[in-house]
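Re: export button greyed out
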Amino acid sequence: MQSRTFAIMVSVLIMLIVINLIRRQKMTFKYSMLWLATSLAALLFSIFDQALNQISSMMGFALPSNFVFFCLLSFFIIQSLFLTIYVNQQNSRIEALAQAVGILEYQQQKPSDSRSVKPKSD
Amino acid sequence: MIPAYNESAAIRELVLSLRKQHPDYVPLVINDGSRDQTASEALLAGAKVVSHPFNLGIGGAVQTGYKIARQENYDAVIQIDGDAQHDPAYLAAVLEPILSNRLDLCIGSRFLTSSSSFKSTFTRRIGIRFFSRLLSSLTGVHLTDPTSGFRATGRKLIACFAEYYPIDFPEPEAIKIAKRLSARIGEVPVSMRARQGGVSSIRYLSTLYYMIKVTFAILIDTLKEKR
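Workaround output, generated via the alternate export path:
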């Protein structure tokens, strides 16, 4: 019983933190989805702990705690995989921006250069 | 086009000799976020200069060059290293197969002739041979110098490389990409000089990373769709 209330408290706390982060615009919904879904699952499992026991034995885990650890580990792996994808996305966008900045500067300097070289024609 | 990162020691001399030997070519220096005087030296020598706000890696610089070439509608681009290792005297030879429409990608090779005075380290020669074997077994194209950054590209590949170009250690992978896009690839002999300044993008410690990265990238490219 004790561990159950503790689990409920922790999952509610995480959910509230994430929602508060969204409210203060420190996080967008897109990036908070995985956190919200996981904390919701944790909350449901800690309220309905019979369901947790049934699912874990159905999936062949010897102990429900093993199942919980497995879920947590999977969550972190998936989360870090997504973060790596985001980092790479940011990286290639920054690269494209740097190239665009360079090209823009180059185009700005070019017309004035050619004007100064060309003799007056009209 | 000349990708350059911290090459202020060699860049002015290179641009001046380029303009002297080939007054009808447009030298474009891509200054990849250098912390030294590369950009102003190149401008003084009379080159066009694009500067990145920070260092992207040689592939990023080369891609910027292709983007500009596409925008300004060039028929051909010659890429030459910013450290003056490549002799501008060979520009016309590397460019000729492109202009006569025999090749889409023409690479200047140090190893096609025995007269070349260029001395490479033992490990680098092994690496080069490894990549040339890998590329020839995967694509059927036999190249003696797949890591050479002295190369010319035609209109078709300019557009493709402007869209996508590998960001670091791009040379062998670019050949694989070109082959996937069914480009005609060939080599002409050039001779190279020892470095006049700056540091090669292939440094001692990162050799292993270089080998693994490029091999992996070439293998991944075989999984991409043909066009």
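Chain B has a mean pLDDT of 87. The button fix ships in the next patch.
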